[in-house]
């Protein structure tokens, strides 16, 4: 099926077949149950696809969930992006997915610790690249023919944020050798609530080779607490500060929680939760306009609309390089503002 035929098939109204069409959804949801034969590892994925195909190739976000998540999660982002013409592929990582919560409850901590091991961290990046391979391959999917290969974005929350950072160039050294995970097909990243890399002290060295634009999203109460592990806002700021690439943005919401960026509705407070989800979806779309269209208009509108939610009012450093919350490119650090 060629590109034009695929676009027509995706957008053909039922009324054209003589049927009474219900109110159309702005997106389609398609599940894939892939298996990577090279690793004998299942890679389930869920695709949110714009219901009315664009006349130009479609941008794509590849999303990685946090520990204990699944392809079903973060649907508010997938729905919002696809409703605005940006497809998103939500990858499920079987070694660190919702299966961790099943089984003997006394074994949860051990299962979480196993899921956080380096081998799983690397397997997650391989999942992301494999899923992208499959979607773009004509052998397995017609959707890849319509994807804009120059507008593919890595995205993730928590553990998934680390996965995305590895996919765009973060490197960890082991036994004198760099563990390379870079997938050069990604031209930007959405980094939500990124924890520090486990056991690593020199974040600047780990993140030094990241060169694509990134947007970082967190909140003042963005705290991870599990037995034997704690990570708060300072860690999110440290990740942001350590990225040397100049095209980066940071938004810090007031209050909230770490898990309010998932599909959970009440964590962080029901009103704040709903507002932050809407603001995050809006902000990422404005970020896409900025990096792909060189248009900061949507970012300017975003700061006017959502200023009341931020821990610090956003400001623009220049028309071409806005920043939000705590980011300060001139002083080189954001952390001093938040102690």
Automatic annotation (TrEMBL):
The keyword Repressor does not apply. GO terms for molecular function: 1-alkyl-2-acetylglycerophosphocholine esterase activity. Pfam families: PAF-AH_p_II (PF03403). One of its GO terms (biological process) is lipid catabolic process. Gene3D superfamilies: alpha/beta hydrolase. Keywords: Hydrolase, Lipid degradation, Lipid metabolism. PANTHER family: PLATELET-ACTIVATING FACTOR ACETYLHYDROLASE (PTHR10272:SF0). This is Platelet-activating factor acetylhydrolase plasma/intracellular isoform II. It comes from Hydrocarboniphaga effusa AP103.
